[in-house]
């Protein structure tokens, strides 16, 4: 696979974001040298120009609530995939790593996939759509669906709201079914309730 030729920086279009592995490399067992050798040079997010207008439309809709779309990751090179996979297996084991990373298709390497969050413009921080104490299982769709406590219901409502906005703009939940990962596939049916 080669680097897509239509990659653009999201901040050049007024969108918010930062590259996940630029900031979280050590958390997941990587070194700064690992990510830089794999081609990651800064925390700017790139995506295919094909999806910029769609992301801007989602961002505009969120602004009606005083929020913004925050893109935590867009394009990820094959080299980044490989070193991330290797280091995550070393740290978390193969089973946990395989539940999160799709090494078969490497969807982020196309520039058409994004990991997203909601940004609170008043508080100037991310609105969390899961509780960290819920661990890896909470990364996946419907973890909170049948839980009745207020915190769980709030997480589910936020995930549902953002998921529906993404679907309306041609994005679909990725094959790993993480609540935050979307692939631009407008030619396929929506796959989020």
Structure at a glance:
With 193 residues, the protein is of the alpha+beta class.
What does this structure look like?
This protein is of the alpha+beta class and 193 residues long. It is built from six helices and eight strands; from the N terminus they run ββααβαβααββαββ. The strands form two sheets. Strands 2, 4, 5, 6, 7 and 8 form a six-stranded mixed sheet that branches. A two-stranded antiparallel ribbon has the order 1-3. Strand 7 and strand 8 form a beta hairpin. It starts with 6 loop residues before the first strand and ends in a 9-residue tail after the last strand.
Based on the model shown, name its key terms.
6-stranded mixed β-sheet; alpha+beta; 193 residues
Query: What is the CA-atom radius of gyration, in angstroms?
Result: 16 Å
Largest sheet: 6 strands, mixed
- As a percent range, the share of strand residues is 15-25%
Mean pLDDT: 95
Counting copies of identical and different chains, the oligomeric state is single chain
Tally the helices. 6
Helix-strand category: alpha+beta
Overall 3D shape? globular
| SSE succession | EEHHEHEHHEEHEE
Termini separation? 33 Å
Low-confidence stretches: none
Percent helix, as a range, is: 25-40%
Write down how many β-strands occur, each being a DSSP E stretch of 2 or more residues: 8
Note the topology:
Blueprint lengths: L6 E3 L6 E2 L2 H5 L7 H6 L8 E3 L3 H12 L3 E7 L4 H15 L1 H7 L12 E8 L4 E3 L22 H19 L2 E3 L7 E4 L9
Helix pairs in contact: 4-5
């Amino acid at each position: 696979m080669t680097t897509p030729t239509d990659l653009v920086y999201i901040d050049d279009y007024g969108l918010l974001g930062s590259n996940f592995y630029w900031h979280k490399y050590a958390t997941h067992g990587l070194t700064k040298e690992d990510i830089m050798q794999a081609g990651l040079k800064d925390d700017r997010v790139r995506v295919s120009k094909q999806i910029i207008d769609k992301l801007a439309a989602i961002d505009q809709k969120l602004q009606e609530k005083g929020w913004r779309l925050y893109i935590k990751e867009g394009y990820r090179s094959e080299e980044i995939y490989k070193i991330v996979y290797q280091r995550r297996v070393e740290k978390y084991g193969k089973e946990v790593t395989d539940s999160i990373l799709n090494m078969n298709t490497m969807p982020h390497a196309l520039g058409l996939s994004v990991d997203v969050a909601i940004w609170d413009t008043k508080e100037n921080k991310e609105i969390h759509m899961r509780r960290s104490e819920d661990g890896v299982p909470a990364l996946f769709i419907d973890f909170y669906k049948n839980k009745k406590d207020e915190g769980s219901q709030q997480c589910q409502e936020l995930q549902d709201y953002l998921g529906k906005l993404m679907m309306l703009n041609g994005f679909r939940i990725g094959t790993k079914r993480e609540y935050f990962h979307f692939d631009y596939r407008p030619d396929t049916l929506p796959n989020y309730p």
